[in-house]
Design brief:
This protein has nine helices and nine strands. By secondary structure, it is an alpha/beta fold. The chain has a single domain, classed as Thiamin diphosphate (ThDP)-binding fold, Pyr/PP domains (Rossmann fold).
Length: about 250
Protein backbone atom coordinates (compact mmCIF):
# COMPACT_ATOMS: atom_id res chain seq x y z
CA UNK A 1 0.00 0.00 0.00
CA UNK A 2 1.37 3.42 -0.95
CA UNK A 3 1.94 5.79 1.94
CA UNK A 4 0.38 9.17 1.15
CA UNK A 5 0.85 11.03 4.44
CA UNK A 6 3.37 10.97 7.24
CA UNK A 7 5.69 12.96 9.45
CA UNK A 8 8.37 14.86 7.50
CA UNK A 9 11.93 13.69 8.16
CA UNK A 10 12.85 17.21 9.27
CA UNK A 11 10.23 17.13 12.04
CA UNK A 12 10.74 15.43 15.40
CA UNK A 13 8.35 12.84 16.78
CA UNK A 14 7.22 15.09 19.62
CA UNK A 15 3.94 15.85 21.36
CA UNK A 16 2.86 19.44 20.65
CA UNK A 17 2.63 21.85 23.57
CA UNK A 18 0.83 24.51 21.52
CA UNK A 19 -2.70 25.61 22.39
CA UNK A 20 -5.53 24.03 20.35
CA UNK A 21 -5.95 25.95 17.12
CA UNK A 22 -2.53 27.65 17.25
CA UNK A 23 -1.00 28.13 13.81
CA UNK A 24 2.58 27.40 14.84
CA UNK A 25 2.17 23.65 14.49
CA UNK A 26 0.90 24.02 10.93
CA UNK A 27 3.76 26.35 10.03
CA UNK A 28 6.35 24.04 11.59
CA UNK A 29 5.12 21.20 9.43
CA UNK A 30 5.15 23.33 6.29
CA UNK A 31 8.74 24.41 6.97
CA UNK A 32 9.75 20.78 7.56
CA UNK A 33 8.03 19.60 4.37
CA UNK A 34 9.75 22.27 2.31
CA UNK A 35 13.15 21.45 3.79
CA UNK A 36 12.66 17.79 2.88
CA UNK A 37 11.42 18.54 -0.62
CA UNK A 38 14.33 20.89 -1.33
CA UNK A 39 16.72 18.27 0.14
CA UNK A 40 18.51 20.83 2.30
CA UNK A 41 18.15 19.23 5.74
CA UNK A 42 21.90 18.79 6.16
CA UNK A 43 22.56 22.40 5.14
CA UNK A 44 19.76 24.35 6.80
CA UNK A 45 20.03 26.27 10.09
CA UNK A 46 17.02 27.78 11.87
CA UNK A 47 17.19 30.74 14.25
CA UNK A 48 14.23 31.18 16.64
CA UNK A 49 14.23 34.00 19.23
CA UNK A 50 12.18 34.54 22.40
CA UNK A 51 8.39 34.03 22.29
CA UNK A 52 6.23 31.09 21.24
CA UNK A 53 8.49 30.89 18.18
CA UNK A 54 11.48 29.87 20.30
CA UNK A 55 10.13 26.37 20.82
CA UNK A 56 10.52 25.58 17.13
CA UNK A 57 13.68 23.74 18.16
CA UNK A 58 11.50 21.21 20.00
CA UNK A 59 9.85 20.19 16.74
CA UNK A 60 12.18 20.83 13.79
CA UNK A 61 14.87 18.16 13.54
CA UNK A 62 17.52 20.42 12.02
CA UNK A 63 20.43 22.51 13.26
CA UNK A 64 19.12 25.44 15.31
CA UNK A 65 20.71 28.49 16.92
CA UNK A 66 18.60 30.35 19.48
CA UNK A 67 18.73 34.17 19.48
CA UNK A 68 17.95 36.80 22.13
CA UNK A 69 14.62 38.57 21.84
CA UNK A 70 14.44 40.50 18.56
CA UNK A 71 17.93 39.57 17.41
CA UNK A 72 17.18 36.59 15.17
CA UNK A 73 17.97 38.37 11.90
CA UNK A 74 21.25 39.62 13.39
CA UNK A 75 22.19 36.12 14.54
CA UNK A 76 21.08 34.66 11.19
CA UNK A 77 23.23 37.24 9.40
CA UNK A 78 26.27 36.22 11.45
CA UNK A 79 25.71 32.52 10.79
CA UNK A 80 25.20 33.07 7.06
CA UNK A 81 28.31 35.22 6.72
CA UNK A 82 30.40 32.68 8.65
CA UNK A 83 28.88 29.72 6.78
CA UNK A 84 27.80 31.08 3.38
CA UNK A 85 27.07 27.60 2.00
CA UNK A 86 24.33 27.03 4.61
CA UNK A 87 20.63 27.88 4.18
CA UNK A 88 19.74 30.09 7.16
CA UNK A 89 16.28 31.18 8.20
CA UNK A 90 14.84 32.95 11.23
CA UNK A 91 11.46 32.02 12.67
CA UNK A 92 9.92 35.01 14.45
CA UNK A 93 6.65 36.24 15.92
CA UNK A 94 5.20 39.72 15.45
CA UNK A 95 5.92 40.78 19.05
CA UNK A 96 9.57 39.99 18.34
CA UNK A 97 10.29 41.02 14.76
CA UNK A 98 8.01 44.10 14.61
CA UNK A 99 8.93 45.51 18.05
CA UNK A 100 12.29 44.91 19.71
CA UNK A 101 13.70 43.42 16.49
CA UNK A 102 12.57 46.08 14.03
CA UNK A 103 15.99 47.70 13.59
CA UNK A 104 17.84 44.43 13.04
CA UNK A 105 15.31 43.30 10.47
CA UNK A 106 15.14 46.54 8.51
CA UNK A 107 18.92 46.81 8.25
CA UNK A 108 19.34 43.13 7.32
CA UNK A 109 16.84 43.64 4.50
CA UNK A 110 18.45 46.88 3.40
CA UNK A 111 21.89 45.24 3.24
CA UNK A 112 20.40 42.42 1.19
CA UNK A 113 21.54 39.74 3.63
CA UNK A 114 21.05 36.38 1.96
CA UNK A 115 18.80 34.98 4.66
CA UNK A 116 15.12 34.01 4.84
CA UNK A 117 12.65 35.17 7.48
CA UNK A 118 9.50 33.30 8.50
CA UNK A 119 7.38 35.99 10.20
CA UNK A 120 4.40 34.61 12.16
CA UNK A 121 1.86 37.38 12.74
CA UNK A 122 -0.90 36.54 15.25
CA UNK A 123 -1.49 40.10 16.42
CA UNK A 124 -0.57 39.66 20.10
CA UNK A 125 2.28 38.81 22.45
CA UNK A 126 1.38 35.13 22.70
CA UNK A 127 3.81 33.72 25.26
CA UNK A 128 3.67 36.53 27.84
CA UNK A 129 -0.08 36.92 28.24
CA UNK A 130 -1.71 38.45 25.19
CA UNK A 131 -0.53 42.06 25.42
CA UNK A 132 -0.92 44.48 22.52
CA UNK A 133 1.67 43.88 19.80
CA UNK A 134 2.80 46.24 17.03
CA UNK A 135 0.45 44.36 14.68
CA UNK A 136 -2.62 44.41 16.93
CA UNK A 137 -5.38 45.92 14.78
CA UNK A 138 -7.55 48.91 15.67
CA UNK A 139 -10.33 47.92 18.06
CA UNK A 140 -8.71 44.59 18.95
CA UNK A 141 -8.86 43.77 22.65
CA UNK A 142 -5.76 42.60 24.48
CA UNK A 143 -4.66 42.43 28.10
CA UNK A 144 -3.12 45.91 27.77
CA UNK A 145 -5.94 47.29 25.59
CA UNK A 146 -9.08 45.85 27.25
CA UNK A 147 -11.20 48.43 25.46
CA UNK A 148 -9.55 47.77 22.12
CA UNK A 149 -6.55 49.32 20.40
CA UNK A 150 -7.11 53.05 19.97
CA UNK A 151 -5.62 54.89 17.01
CA UNK A 152 -5.03 58.19 18.84
CA UNK A 153 -3.55 56.57 21.92
CA UNK A 154 -1.73 53.54 20.47
CA UNK A 155 -1.08 54.43 16.84
CA UNK A 156 -1.84 52.26 13.84
CA UNK A 157 -0.66 48.66 13.46
CA UNK A 158 2.74 48.38 11.79
CA UNK A 159 2.89 46.81 8.34
CA UNK A 160 6.47 45.60 8.59
CA UNK A 161 6.41 43.67 5.33
CA UNK A 162 5.49 46.77 3.35
CA UNK A 163 8.24 48.69 5.14
CA UNK A 164 10.81 46.05 4.24
CA UNK A 165 9.70 46.02 0.61
CA UNK A 166 11.00 49.58 0.23
CA UNK A 167 14.56 48.50 1.01
CA UNK A 168 16.90 47.86 -1.90
CA UNK A 169 18.19 44.55 -0.59
CA UNK A 170 14.86 42.76 -0.22
CA UNK A 171 13.94 40.70 -3.27
CA UNK A 172 10.93 38.58 -2.28
CA UNK A 173 8.24 39.33 0.33
CA UNK A 174 4.83 37.70 0.48
CA UNK A 175 2.01 37.71 3.03
CA UNK A 176 0.00 34.53 3.41
CA UNK A 177 -2.14 32.86 6.12
CA UNK A 178 -2.90 29.43 7.62
CA UNK A 179 -6.62 29.96 8.20
CA UNK A 180 -7.80 27.68 5.38
CA UNK A 181 -6.61 24.78 3.27
CA UNK A 182 -6.20 27.04 0.26
CA UNK A 183 -4.07 29.52 2.19
CA UNK A 184 -2.00 26.77 3.80
CA UNK A 185 -1.09 25.51 0.31
CA UNK A 186 -0.24 29.06 -0.74
CA UNK A 187 1.92 29.48 2.38
CA UNK A 188 3.93 26.37 1.56
CA UNK A 189 4.59 27.66 -1.96
CA UNK A 190 5.74 31.00 -0.53
CA UNK A 191 8.14 29.34 1.94
CA UNK A 192 9.53 27.23 -0.90
CA UNK A 193 10.15 30.27 -3.08
CA UNK A 194 11.69 32.27 -0.21
CA UNK A 195 14.22 29.51 0.46
CA UNK A 196 14.93 29.13 -3.25
CA UNK A 197 15.72 32.85 -3.39
CA UNK A 198 18.37 32.25 -0.75
CA UNK A 199 19.67 29.10 -2.43
CA UNK A 200 20.22 31.15 -5.59
CA UNK A 201 22.02 33.87 -3.58
CA UNK A 202 19.62 36.58 -4.71
CA UNK A 203 19.10 38.53 -1.48
CA UNK A 204 16.74 38.95 1.48
CA UNK A 205 13.43 37.03 1.46
CA UNK A 206 10.54 37.02 3.91
CA UNK A 207 7.19 35.29 4.27
CA UNK A 208 4.68 36.87 6.67
CA UNK A 209 2.09 34.35 7.82
CA UNK A 210 -1.16 35.43 9.48
CA UNK A 211 -1.77 32.85 12.19
CA UNK A 212 -4.58 32.30 14.74
CA UNK A 213 -3.96 32.59 18.50
CA UNK A 214 -7.29 31.39 19.96
CA UNK A 215 -6.15 31.56 23.59
CA UNK A 216 -5.22 35.24 23.56
CA UNK A 217 -7.94 36.23 21.12
CA UNK A 218 -10.45 34.61 23.52
CA UNK A 219 -12.00 32.70 20.64
CA UNK A 220 -12.52 29.11 19.62
CA UNK A 221 -10.06 27.76 17.03
CA UNK A 222 -12.73 28.02 14.33
CA UNK A 223 -13.63 31.58 15.31
CA UNK A 224 -9.96 32.61 15.41
CA UNK A 225 -9.36 31.32 11.89
CA UNK A 226 -12.46 33.06 10.58
CA UNK A 227 -11.36 36.26 12.29
CA UNK A 228 -8.19 36.30 10.18
CA UNK A 229 -10.16 36.48 6.94
CA UNK A 230 -12.88 38.77 8.28
CA UNK A 231 -10.77 41.28 10.23
CA UNK A 232 -6.97 40.92 10.14
CA UNK A 233 -6.74 40.88 6.35
CA UNK A 234 -8.45 44.29 6.31
CA UNK A 235 -5.19 45.71 7.68
CA UNK A 236 -2.83 43.05 6.33
CA UNK A 237 -4.12 41.86 2.92
CA UNK A 238 -2.77 38.60 1.55
CA UNK A 239 -0.56 39.25 -1.45
CA UNK A 240 2.89 39.18 -2.99
CA UNK A 241 4.31 42.46 -1.72
CA UNK A 242 7.61 42.36 -3.61
CA UNK A 243 9.04 39.98 -6.16
CA UNK A 244 12.20 40.92 -8.04
CA UNK A 245 12.96 37.37 -9.12
CA UNK A 246 9.85 36.06 -10.87
CA UNK A 247 9.69 32.30 -11.33
CA UNK A 248 12.09 30.06 -9.48
Amino acid sequence: MKRVFGRPSSMKDAVSHYCPGCGHGIIHRLVAEVIDELDIREKVIGVPPVGCAVLAYDYLDIDMGEAPHGRATAVATGIKRALPDRIVFSYQGDGDIAAIGTAETIHAANRGEKITVIFVNNGVYGMTGGQMAPTTIIGQRSTTTPGGRNLDRDGAPIDLSEMLAISNGSVYIERTAVDSTRNIIRTKKAITKALRVQMEGLGFSLVEILSPCPTNLKMSPVQASKWISSSITTYFPLKVIKDKVGRL
